[in-house]
Design brief:
By secondary structure, this protein is an alpha/beta fold. The chain is 34% helix and 12% strand. The protein has 20 helices and 14 strands. The strands form 4 sheets. The chain has a 6-stranded mixed β-sheet. The longest helix is centred in the middle third of the chain and has 20 residues, at 227-246. The two termini are 30 Å apart. Bound molecules: FE2/S2 (inorganic) cluster. Residues 55, 87-88, 123-124, 161, 195-196, 200, 202 line the site of FE2/S2 (inorganic) cluster.
Length: 573
């Protein structure tokens, strides 16, 4: 773009009239001098900081570093808060609010005098929600992830967010460790700023935005407290000003090639199953054709070359010291489209040329990977006519082909009430089925798909069984867990019709999930089926229930798909 061409923000700040006076005068109450309104790029810093989102609690400091970079490059930074989605404290589930947060981001960007945007992200949903919103506007955008926590340390060994929580919890329920041990582990697990440091959903999302080309190279893995995280923020502030001058918009970066690269990279790093749902939603906003099948077609044959929990035994800090995502891109270069453009204005290939790997125990070679064929598998069958997903690398290999008797829980309350019932007829060969935890069923599609096993089986040493649900699973979790069953039970998918004692066949190599009940019997059961009562008849939850789409479509609202551009009417005041 011609540097002298008037920027969008000048529609607010550039006029010598009543409106121009108003916009400048009130903004000057923060002490900004006249020259900041002279036509330089105005950069919005979209901050998901919140005390209620512990993973993002350091983002005010990161915002200051971005501002330094923006000022240095000749821009004018203006920071603004948006709805922050904290995975740990929000109920019933942050996923219920991802689309709401994306609307907040979209409307705030469009309504204000901004020329470019920096998205400060961290905890799981803060990345997809902000990027979805920014894509629906289309101004030049760069993402600055907040970075992972330092490795957890417990009695001389590394422990990982979530992944070790599930293990500690199973051991405590089984009586293997004491209450004191269990409580001590709490403080050892989360010991610095940053998001979960396993390859959970937050790390997966950070890697996703880097793989898509929406961050500076290496942004995903730098630990939150490392000074190089602040340096990255500073440099991102520099770069967004240049991006505005170049008019480098997300649509030029988020092409089909970028999405394909991200899918392949996600498989190779052992990323979260939540990646599917968020990438589909982002693709829907930017207008790239992407289906659930692409994740299997492009990703399932990829090798696992990153050894991070929950698929491996290392953590994000190790990943950073090993070379981070640039080293992964280099290793996968024959599989990727290296010509995909990134926010640097260069291609992903140019950004990563010669990126070294310093630790082959953390980042393996393609020739000698940690596992072969590890991407997410997309299953079909009469139990999931529109698809379901499973992460084979986090599953028990012996269970990937299994026929078993169903033990059914009608909803999450039924699960809590009966999973530990001593009279529950269950053994490790059974398949546990949980209904009504999908987008509409819960509502919000919570991360309960990896629900805990019956205490009696845990005490006998069983640590994994096949579990099937229309919900999601924490990216830090593991197990033979079939997720995202679509259509979900609450809208009448066949999942709603499963009964105790039915036989189910799971055949991951052949991508099949089959309920062994005749069509005639299913038709009879459907006649007796009643949809659940709506959870809310007013407010945001009603809007959510009316408009959320199924998991195979990214669970975005039907009316949010697409892009409305950056134009906004000047209004009449
Ligand atoms: Fe925030 Fe895991 S709880 S990233």
């Amino acid at each position: 773009m011609d540097k002298n061409k008037s920027l969008r923000s000048q529609e607010w700040f550039g006029k010598i009239d009543t409106l121009g006076f108003t916009h400048r005068s009130w903004t000057k109450n923060q002490g900004y001098p006249d020259h900041l309104f002279d036509g330089r790029p105005v950069i919005g810093i979209c901050n998901t900081w919140s005390d209620l989102t512990p993973c993002n609690s350091h983002l005010r400091i990161i915002a200051e570093m971005v501002k330094r970079g923006v000022y240095e490059a000749g821009g004018f930074p203006l920071e603004f808060p948006v709805m922050s989605l904290g995975e740990i404290l929000m109920r019933p589930t942050t996923m219920l609010f991802r689309n709401l947060a994306s609307m907040d981001v979209e409307e705030t960007i469009r309504a204000n005098p901004l020329d470019g945007v920096v998205l400060l992200t961290g905890c799981d949903k803060t990345t997809p929600s902000t990027l979805m919103g920014a894509c629906s506007v289309g101004l030049p955008t760069i993402v600055v992830p907040g970075g992972p926590m330092l490795n957890g340390k417990y009695r001389g060994r590394d422990i990982g967010s979530g992944t070790d929580l599930w293990k500690f919890s199973a051991d405590y329920r089984a009586g293997v460790i004491s209450k004191e041990d269990y409580q001590e582990a709490e403080s050892c697990m989360s010991r610095s700023d940053g998001h979960c440091m396993t390859m959970g959903t937050a790390s997966t999302m950070a890697c996703m935005v880097e793989a898509l080309g929406m961050t500076l190279p290496g942004a995903a893995a730098i630990p939150a407290p490392d000074s190089r995280r602040r340096r990255l923020a500073h440099l991102s502030g520099n770069r967004i000003v240049e991006m505005v001058h170049e008019n480098l918009q997300p649509a030029a970066i988020l092409t089909r090639s970028a999405f394909e690269n991200a899918i392949k990279i996600n498989s190779a790093i052992g990323g979260s199953t939540n990646f599917v749902i968020h990438l589909l939603a982002i693709a829907g906003r930017i207008g790239v054709e992407l289906t659930i099948d692409d994740f299997d077609i492009l990703g399932s044959a990829m090798p696992l070359i990153v050894n991070l929990m929950p698929s491996g035994d290392k953590l994000m800090e190790d990943f950073y010291y090993a070379g981070g995502l640039p080293a992964v891109v280099q290793e996968l270069k024959s599989e990727l489209d290296l010509d995909a453009l990134t926010v640097t204005g260069k291609t992903i290939g140019e950004n990563t040329t010669g990126a070294p790997c310093y630790d082959r125990e953390t980042i393996a070679t393609v020739k000698k990977p940690f596992q072969q064929n590890v991407g997410l598998a997309v299953l079909y069958g009469n139990l999931c006519e529109n698809g379901a997903v499973i992460k084979p690398s986090a599953a028990t290999a012996a269970l990937l082909q299994h026929r078993g008797r169903a033990v059914v829980f009608e909803d999450i309350d039924d699960l809590h009430a009966h999973i530990d019932d001593p009279d529950l007829e269950v053994d490790e060969s059974n398949i546990l089925v949980l209904k009504n935890v999908g987008p509409k069923g819960y509502p919000g599609m919570p991360e309960v798909g990896n629900f805990e096993l019956p205490k009696r089986l845990l005490e006998s040493g069983i640590r994994d069984m096949i579990r099937i649900s229309d919900g999601r699973m924490s990216g830090t979790a593991f197990g033979t867990v079939v997720l995202h069953v679509a259509p979900e039970a609450a809208v009448g998918g066949n999942l709603a019709l499963v009964k105790n004692g039915d036989y189910i066949e799971l055949d991951v190599p052949n991508r099949r999930l089959h309920l062994d009940v005749s069509d005639a019997e299913l038709t009879q059961r459907r006649k007796a089926w009643q949809p659940p009562e709506p959870h809310m008849k007013r407010g945001y939850v009603k809007m959510y229930l009316d408009h959320v789409q199924q998991a195979n479509l990214g669970a975005d609202f039907d009316f949010l798909t697409g892009n409305s551009g950056a134009f906004v009417s000047p209004g009449n005041h």
